């Protein structure tokens, strides 16, 4: 599996000796993978789904949307807690990467 731009950035800009920080990075990357898989499920099935229960049929929000919101909260909390070595100057080559869905999809298994 190839490394995403985000994974490379986090590894290059964090302390490899800080085991707690490295664990947070692993957790963050795991959550991003789940987030992306939920995104795929939402694209496949839509934001709302039709549920059939016997003769009844009703429309409800796709459960993946709710789970994605929960994961987003966790991702934001981890991001706030990262202690990264960010450059003091505004050198664009050293700033966090801008990713697209396509960049991250290649890393999904």
From TrEMBL:
Pfam families: Terminase_4. It comes from the Bacteria. Residues 88-109 are annotated as: Disordered. This is P27 family phage terminase small subunit. It comes from Loigolactobacillus jiayinensis.
């Amino acid at each position: 599996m190839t490394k995403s731009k985000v994974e490379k950035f986090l590894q290059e800009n964090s302390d490899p000796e800080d085991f707690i920080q490295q664990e947070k990075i692993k957790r963050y990357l795991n959550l991003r993978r789940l987030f992306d898989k939920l995104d795929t499920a939402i694209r496949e099935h839509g934001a709302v789904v039709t549920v059939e229960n016997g003769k009844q049929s009703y429309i409800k929000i796709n459960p993946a949307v709710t789970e994605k919101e929960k994961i987003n909260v966790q991702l934001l909390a981890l991001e706030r807690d990262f202690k990264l070595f960010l450059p003091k100057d505004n050198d664009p080559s050293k700033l966090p990467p801008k990713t697209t869905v396509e960049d991250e999809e290649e890393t999904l298994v």
